[in-house]
Amino acid sequence: xxxxxxxxxxxxxxxxxxxxxxxxxxxxxxxxxxxxxxxxxxxxxxxxxxxxxxxxxxxxxxxxxxxxxxxxxxxxxxxxxxxxxxxxxxxxxxxxxxxxxxxxxxxxxxxxxxxxxxxxxxxxxxxxxxxxxxxxxxxxxxxxxxxxxxxxxxxxxxxxxxxxxxxxxxxxxxxxxxxxxxxxxxxxxxxxxxxxxxxxxxxxxxxxxxxxxxxxxxxxxxxxxxxxxxxxxxxxxxxxxxxxxxxxxxxxxxxxxxxxxxxxxxxxxxxxxxxxxxx
Length: 279
Known about the structure:
This protein has helices spanning 10-17, 22-32, 55-66, 89-98, 109-121, 160-170, 208-218, 243-248, 250-265, and strands spanning 79-83, 101-106, 128-132, 145-151, 171-184, 220-227, 269-278. It is α/β, with parallel strands linked by helices. The chain has a single domain (10-278), classed as 3-Layer(aba) Sandwich (Rossmann fold), CATH 3.40.50. Strands 3-2-1-4-5-7-6 form a 7-stranded mixed sheet, sandwiched between helices. Helix 3 crosses helix 4. The chain is globular.
């Protein structure tokens, strides 16, 4: 039987991810990368605001796989809920390139603060809002969104049943659930540290077949299911303005990268892009 870890408390999760002075650190990194803070566009943030495996290219890939350019909404623009929105990079891409109106929810206050600052600097505050909130207790009405979107969010969440039920509740009938999620591979337990955990006590991965079955039982119909693990492979350190270096620091990131390469090579970790429709 796979090991799912113990229950991770909200306080423990925030402690793992929270960073002090993060807004200033991110802005300084952008300046060091040659960006003009008074003339920022969404594309200027591409290397800095996508805090998930694969960066912006996999965000675009998932959006295309979900068909966001073809979906229709009774409200005109697609209403998207981005759960675990992080620094807001995916939300800004969905708003700027696909015309979506996006609400993000994230547990970490410093990430939400950065997300709000960057969204305002690129002039998207009328299309993207960022909220502090718990993925297991979404503060929205039933059927409120056309799309529920999440990238690398469930790794610290053991209660995936409640998580998925919440996604289903806030998504309108016929709406789209699109996700990118690390899952447990067949190669054995993870090598640690990984980006989201120092050890098994706060890492909650399940195998792809179990997750696919759980999503279906929750009330979704599968449209696509792709193993994109190869897209996560990296070599060397990312640039200094990359979010992984800004948030984790170089020393810790080297340990994470070494463990990550082993996990991928040994089939201990897989990353899935899934697109489902609410029945």
